[in-house]
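Hi everyone, sorry if this is the wrong subforum. Our group has a chain we'd like a structural model of before ordering constructs, and none of us has done structure prediction before. Sequence below.
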Amino acid sequence: MLEVAAYCRVSTDREDQASSFENQRRFFQEYIESHPDWRLFCIYADEGVTGTSTKKREAFNRMIGDARRRAFQLILTKEVSRFSRNILDAIAYTRELRGLGIGVLFLNDGINTLDPDAELRLSIMGSLAQEESRRTSSRVKWGQTRRMEQGVVFGRSLLGYDVRNGQMTINPEGAEVVRRIFHMYGVEKKGTTAIAQALEAEGIRTRSGGVKWSNSHIVKLLKNEKYAGDLVQKKTITPDYLSHAKKYNHGEEPLVILRNHHPPIVDRALWDFVQKELRRRARKRGEGRGSSSDYALSGKLVCGQCGASLVARKRLRSDGSCYRRWSCRTAVTKGRAGCALGWSLREESALILLQQSLDTLDLDHEALLQNVTDCAVAAIQQKGGERAGELERASKKLRQKRADALDAFFSKRITEEDLALLKRRYDQELDALEKRLEAAERANAAAPGNLRWDIYDKLTSIWNDGVTGEILCRSILEEMTIYQDRRVVVRLRHLPGSWTYFLGSS
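Answer:
Right subforum, don't worry. Here is the predicted structure as tokens:
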């Protein structure tokens, strides 16, 4: 008696597909019973899953596991596309099964994998199934993009908005929480952590119903353009139709951006202000890590005793004026338990040492300024050329979209009304792009003659300020390290060696 298994699959859980699903199961039951020397082992069935990957097909994977235990000797399936739309998977699994002495019989395709020519025929049929899957994926993606451009929302509900049937409507209760968060951050100047703590203390629930708020949750909400009435879609994409793995869209495909798409919860002025405030606070946090600061020497001064950065502290002179001293961060925060550097560096002393190091270099100041000016002018002109190139590529993509829309109409995938709407939109966008391209080309062709001299004068002014000028100080100094014996070692950016100085007590 031959133990026989069957495998069937439908890719959606729609009602009509469910009927097909039951029909497949009934067919295999009757087909196996019609062979007296066969006995049904099991019918494995996956419902509502794709055939391009086996990862989420629980029944398929269970069948392969049973096959490896040699629980049956033959698998029946309707056709290659039901077994797998991925040609590599189809061949790999049928080879493994053949090695176990188990054949796969594709009834509609007339292929038995135990036959000598089965792999060649399977490759042909599998390739056709995979290509059909690719074409289906392309059609679905194209259709989704067109619907996005028409304003259909692909996504889930979020705090303040309910999404149903591709439409966004304001949820009053959630919208009130959103407005309060924007007000707390933009008007009351509260931090994201403080906002999260306040919401938790009051027991205000998140969109999912939880009571736990985090600062990252607040930041994500504040950056969501939907609250200003805009819609940006295709932030994530599925580049591989076989694996279906999603990834963030970093420019691989154009975003679909619709301004004033739906009623906003937050007015535009507050939204814009909050975005600027988010960027400002992010820069300020970066300064705290030594990447940048209000001070030219921030992140440049290092303690030779423990390796920590030096931090600025204001001090008062006897005449009431202020000056800055730079002290080891560890010594400041931990006192005697921290660093034992034992002294701090006056800012003016640091600038004098930097100036002395710079003065030892044999530099042709005029030639240096001329070279930097040439580089700046070339960079500006190149940027203008790149901008024109970007506009040309965008124009080409729009023309292709317009051609695709016409092709979709002739193949009856969209109506004449849809075609007219898409054509009108693409024509308007093309017209705007052409005007921007002409303006960019005119600007590149007729660059102001005094551009070079403007740059040169600005650089000269910066140079004449000396190292007290913030731009020059930041660009020249690589690192200044102070040691317990009051030794100071200066290193300049992009230059070998160092300059060592010893300071008296101060």
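For your construct planning: The mean pLDDT is 79. The two ends are 101 Å apart (CA to CA).
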